[in-house]
Amino acid sequence: MSSGDPHDGRHYPPAGGDTGAQQGQAPGPYGYHQHGPGPYGRQHPVRVGPQPGVHVGFGAAIKRYYAKYAQFTGRASRSEYWWVALYLALITLPLELLISYPGTEPSGELNGLGVVLSFVYFGFMLAHFIPSLAIGIRRLHDVNLSGWFTLIGLIPLVGWIVIVVLAVLPHKPEGARFDR
Predict the structure, then answer these.
(1) Sign, Cα dihedral of 89, 90, 96, 100
(2) Per-residue pLDDT tens over the stretch 148-175
(3) Residues contacting residue 47 through CB under 8 Å, at least 6 positions apart
(4) Residues 42 and 118 in one domain
(5) Is the pTM of this model over 0.85?
């Protein structure tokens, strides 16, 4: 088939520069598709994530969390940040409870189950340290703050309260300066 055949499986932008949002098309998994020249001058769809300030659901937030594992540039919406926080809490809190109660002896020492669960917990936390730091920095970018503000979290108690307050702040358009 020729590259101009409308049934060859490719999607070309409509004349006049209309996007899918303007034509009433449903968004894809990462928002509306924009089109641009691909390799060798061919047109191809480019996935574009939801713009900051736009609500994303639980599943989309988790997918973006892992897809942007170590991406410290860009921005993360409030919903993306807090859905990930809920996801991490739903995994770590039960592990902590299992380590604390059935995983310890009356003397306070870990038994076999506690040791195994401690290794699982440590492995999970180690694997999720970088993406959690990245989403926190992207959330600060969305409120137009430098990622260096995450260092405030190192201050005992007060630092965590400040980080929570900053994560609750609404989206600021000026944060676009962090997009690349």
Answers:
(1) positive
(2) 999 999 999 999 999 999 999 999 989 8
(3) 28, 29, 30, 31, 33
(4) no
(5) no
In whole angstroms, give the CA distance from residue 120 to residue 122. 6
pLDDT digits (tens, 9 = 90+) for 82-116: 999 999 999 999 999 988 888 888 888 888 888 99
Q: Is 4 a member of any domain?
A: no
Token duo for residue 149: 């503000």
C-beta separation of 143 from 153 below 8 A: no
SS3 10: coil
Token pair of 16, please?
Answer: 């006049």
Domain residues for the domain of 38 are 9-48
Structure tokens at 105: 């002896």
- Are 41 and 100 in the same domain? no
Q: Which two tokens stand for residue 66?
A: 């892992």
Q: How many domains does the chain have?
A: 2
C-alpha to C-alpha distance for 18 and 163, rounded to whole angstroms:
40
CA atoms lying within 13 Å on the CB side of residue 155: 10
Backbone conformation region of residue 99, classed left if phi is above 0, alpha if psi is from -120 to 50, else beta: alpha
| Count of residues making up the chain | 180
